[in-house]
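DM from R.C. (forwarded with permission)

"hey, sorry to bug you on a friday — could you get me a structure for this? deadline for the figure draft is monday and I only need the backbone to look sensible"
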Amino acid sequence: MQRLSFCIQLFIISNLFTVVKCHNLFSNAVDSTLNPNVIMKNCTIGELCTGSVNSSSVYYYAVQYTFTPNTTVRVTTNMKYSIEQDAPILVVVRQIRGIVSWTLPYTFPNGMIYSNVSRILCLHNEANRTENHLTTVFIEISTSNTDLIEYSIQLDNVTEYSLQVGVSHQFDVSPSMPVYYKYKFPPTVESVFIEVESQDQLCTSVSVQSFDCPVYDVNEIGIRQGHYQTMSKSASFNVHSKEFPKRNEFLLVFIVKPTDFDCLNDKESTMIQPAGVVDVPRKKNAVVKLQTTTYYNYLLVAIFVTGGLFFLIYLIAFSLMCKYKDTYDGLDTAHLASLEVTSGAELAERRASMQRSQTNEDESSTNAYARQTSAMEVIQPEGVGYVTVQ
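My reply, with the result:
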């Protein structure tokens, strides 16, 4: 009896110990999530900075670089994706006057997932945008996932950021890595003609936006600002400076669609990737070039000249028809009557000739049939019948 009582007491004590331990673990997990450790880390331009993060810690990077008015910075983030992860990594980039953020992995509405995301920082978030100066970008890496997730970040200078008339720019763009350029109208230029060419057929949206922050370079909102086109192999815009009176400059934003549905006709179809597909290779290579309105006017002149030539041909043909009337219009009534009589006689003679020809053909057919019939004789010698053809 005493032994049974001792076992019961031991069971109760062990259960209480387990409950207390679980409570402590849960409290520590909640406390680490609500009050994570803040860890400062260093990173420089061009350096690949790696690490691992969970809900117990938040990493802050302070990256200094030299700002110039004609360049900007691209932030590229990557993670080691696993389907067992129940929470993403949150990336927050802070500039002097603005914030941009995204998640890793980046998930599109159709379910496609990208573990690599890259964004270009907005130039107008800087306090001084006209002179070279030293500035700092702050990057925060955090997650609510209790398991460690490996990640990497890298900041690079974007030198080919400003467009110039007559200069082509070749670039790569993907759904998770949008690209945009800026162009400022010189005092002597009122409008420019934009041409975009590509060899592949990936559906891409090209939008012209005012040079403000934030930049609408995300698929869900990238077509809500300014005017835009969807393109497969080519696109073109004619942009006027009066459309942007605030700064007399604009942004040209390129975003690859997660599918080609927006660029297809009603009779065409596209293969929709199922939800959960990771890092679908949809990288588009394109070339953008700006021309002055003189080039655009040449195109208009070519169109109008071609149309004018066709109109001139029709006009000449119509004039000739009016000048040289029908031959019968110049004849008097007597000549017309004689022509009608002559035409009637010729028509009657032709009909008689056709009837004679038909009669001769019928007679020839009848004679041939008679000859064939007379050529056949039936001979019956001694009750055996057979036919001899002579």
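R.C.: lifesaver. DSSP finds three helices and 21 strands in the chain.
me: no worries. The chain has a mean pLDDT of 77.
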